[in-house]
Amino acid sequence: MTTTHPPSQTLLKVCGATTPQDIEAAAAAGADCVGLWHGVPGGPSELDPNGLAALAAAARSAGLLPVLVTFLSDAGALADLVRHTGVGWVQLHAYQPPALVRTLRQALPEHTGIVKVLHVQEDGGCVERPLIGAYGRAGTDLFLLDTATGDGRIGSTGHTLDPDHITALLPRLTRPFLLAGGLTPDNRPAYRDVADHPGFRGIDVDTAARDRTTGRFGVPQITALARAWRTRPTVPDHPPLELSR
């Protein structure tokens, strides 16, 4: 996999947009990608298919890459959804197996990226650890390292990952990765070793991208993340990573 911009520049994905105003804030503040939830039961940012399509179109118009964030595990339904909405990446955020990734890769339109989340527990364990190689062989383009809390919550938990636990997992990765899990502008120095890894491609943030009063994406909050993590101010309307296997 190669990047279409200098490797020192870090992608910023903000997750959980639900309104056109969220898209506008993300674009104005320097984000590269925006996560759109569908098929996340009970999720606070859940969108129906038409809402997903509308926000994906708005994201593309604003120069952002729309990313479907989902717990769904029906490859055919996901491929149909991608065609309907025009999202650029599919982020498998639950415990979907490598077999689903393989089937999805065959069903997806060409150039659609697959992101598979690896859930890192608070004690450093990772449920998917034995399957990392299989995920790569099945067609995963990017991994995303995120928190799984002790009570079983996954996705936008706001819980911070221990940098040492991430560093210990990195030698197992067979694809580049994004980092999530309670990231803020202030804790960037704690992840220096992670960000210096040659496979590091960027960060995925929900909680720290939001205004604490309104709960919506905030331009000052996203701008601070972009500055601290050295993201680009603008991106083209196609995936900022040239995906190749």
From TrEMBL:
Start and end residues of each N-(5'phosphoribosyl) anthranilate isomerase (PRAI) domain: 13-205
Pathway membership: Amino-acid biosynthesis; L-tryptophan biosynthesis; L-tryptophan from chorismate: step 3/5
Keywords: Amino-acid biosynthesis, Aromatic amino acid biosynthesis, Isomerase, Tryptophan biosynthesis
Enzyme Commission no: 5.3.1.24
Keyword Amino-acid biosynthesis (UniProt): yes
One GO MF term: phosphoribosylanthranilate isomerase activity
Keyword Isomerase listed: yes
Superkingdom of origin: Bacteria
A matching Pfam family: PRAI
GO biological process, alphabetically ordered: L-tryptophan biosynthetic process
Catalytic activity field: N-(5-phospho-beta-D-ribosyl)anthranilate = 1-(2-carboxyphenylamino)-1-deoxy-D-ribulose 5-phosphate
Chain segments annotated as coiled-coil in the UniProt record: none
PANTHER family reported in the protein's UniProt record: N-(5'-PHOSPHORIBOSYL)ANTHRANILATE ISOMERASE
Family: Belongs to the TrpF family.
Descriptive protein name: N-(5'-phosphoribosyl)anthranilate isomerase
Species in which this protein is naturally found: Streptomyces subrutilus
Upper classification of the organism: Bacteria, Bacillati, Actinomycetota, Actinomycetes, Kitasatosporales
